[in-house]
Amino acid sequence: MRARVPRSRVSHDRWLVSYADFITLLFAFFVVLYASANADKKKQQVVSAAIDAAFRSLGIFPDATRKPSDTAGATATADHPVVPMNIVMGEDVLAPAAVKDDLERIRRDLTQALSDQVATHTVSIRMGRDGLVISLREAGFFASGSAVPKPETLPTLRQIAARLGATPYDLRIEGHTDNIPIHNDEFDSNWELSSARATHIARLILDEKLIAPERLSAAGYAEFHPVATNDTPEGRAENRRVDLVVLPRTKINFTPPGQAAPPSQPGAWRKITDE
């Protein structure tokens, strides 16, 4: 009598092996994603802290009006210090306070050099929102309705341009008028008159090669940027002017931790405002 050989059983649970492998790989995948997200979060904290420090140093977001969020990384750590910010002016590194001090020095020098014109109120020099403003009154520099500077004012214009040309700052020339409409053989509106006055002074500076062309711009604002009321003759006289606005420029360089600050390069300039 022959012995009966038992038949092997077929297992129906082999799918559990593949399923376990799949779950393991899926778990590893999400672990990698989580680790990457945490690394990016740390980088975002460093960048956010650097931007916050930059805005605070520029006076754009004062401490009293803006509080950084918990994720801003306001405090530095040994592994992730706050990124330093360098403010570059031309080839020199200047803080905003140093820029304002420099503009104030230029204001004092020009006020002394143009003391006669300042005393007769044909020139006024003040600190404005965008920078140093040198106002040339129409009564001292232009004939009524004309965009060509008077010949006797050319030495004064050359003197101003020569002093500003020795600085690293840009110059924006702005033409302004009062609100009395103009219509003569040369100009049909205050827009044209204000733009022409600014352009004539810009051309004079360019022809004399006193300031590099890339640092110079001209604009006409007609009667829409008054500095006094247009309801009185005195106020209208103050509004008829050409402003030479000295524009400070700064460049914000973000230096990665552990690296030396990069050398200054042209481009990506931002103005500092004097609020």
Describe the model:
The protein is of the alpha+beta class and 275 residues long. The protein folds into two domains: 13-83; 96-251, 60s Ribosomal Protein L30, Chain: A, CATH 3.30.1330.60. Helix content is 39%, strand content 16%. It contains seven helices and nine strands, in the order αββααββααβαβαβββ. It has helices at residues 15-58, 96-113, 115-119, 138-141, 154-165, 190-207, 233-239; strands spanning 85-89, 92-93, 123-127, 132-137, 170-176, 216-220, 241-247, 249-254, 270-271. The model is unreliable at 60-93, 250-258 and 260-275 (pLDDT under 50).
Give descriptors for this structure.
275 residues; 60s Ribosomal Protein L30, Chain: A; 2 domains; four-stranded antiparallel beta sheet; 7 helices; 16% strand; elongated
